[in-house]
Design brief:
The chain has seven helices and 20 strands. It has about 325 residues and is α+β, with helices and mostly antiparallel strands. Strands 1-2-3-6-5-4 form a six-stranded antiparallel beta barrel. A six-stranded antiparallel β-barrel has the order 7-8-9-13-11-10. Strands 14, 15, 16, 17, 18 and 19 form a six-stranded antiparallel sheet that branches. It is elongated and about 75 Å long. The relative contact order is 0.12. The model has no long low-confidence stretch (mean pLDDT about 85).
Length: about 325
Amino acid sequence: MKYIWIIVCLALMLFPNPSLAKNPAWKLDKETTELVEKVIPAVVTIYLIPENQASVVPDRNTIYGTGIIVDSRGLVLTSLNVVNRSRHKIVVFLSDGRKFLAKRLGFSPKYGIALLKINGTNLKAISFGDSQKVRPGSLIFKFGNAFLTAQNFKPAVNMGTITGIEEVSQSVKLFRTDAGINRGDEGGPLVDIHGKLVGILLPITVHRKTNTYVSYAVPVHAIQHLIPEMKGYLGVLLTVESSSSQGAYVEAVDPSGPAFKAGIRTGDRIISFGGKDVKNGKELVTVLEKFTAGDKVEVVLMRNGKKIRLSVTLGEKMAD
């Protein structure tokens, strides 16, 4: 009898039932597992470790959360609450076990999100979905590391729905979901049925009216345009002209920004930035996009007919 069962199992493996592929439940299961496998390489685990601590082994005092790679050059979106600590280093783990020190490029207090940068190769980034098409009842998937349950830095996955879209403050609307968010999930991705990013998970919240715990995510269409702004901050107001060839004219300088600290002043014309000649403000904006917060950049400018060379370290940008 044992040998008969073995033969039957082998027959099913070699000659599967054609009707099985037509079964809606089997098809849904296959599509779901493929979606999860596609998203996981872009999901990261984040630890905040005290600067003077050598070990990255988590303990009960470790601050941790989740993030999602949104650009293969190493840009990671997460919750501001996860990385909003001073005198801590940000350690990012990929699902393949690789470890990186990250720097925070910028953040948005309005939406509670932050942008990180890691320096790695062969990074898998998630694609952005159209979160404006998400409606109450839309199916979603939540990826996170609740209570440090991620095995070998591979996130746990929950399927749920969008239960509502709430205006929690003036001009800020959030997705409410029944895919419960726990400690460690915040900063993780909310993904649609196509495997595309539609939201970033926020810390679990007590609803102001019902006094019950609710799970929110910020829609990506509300924050996607902030990513270029958060990459690096120079602190100048430029005349964005395309016809000039005499350099980028500085109309104003933020007195607390990196440019002012480096010696750039109103009325200067920047003619070179990071070794790249710039003819006008439009060209400088394009060149600036290649740099991130913390980068030390050589600047050449003209002031009263004299050429001046400076070095500026780009700062962190707070987006609206």
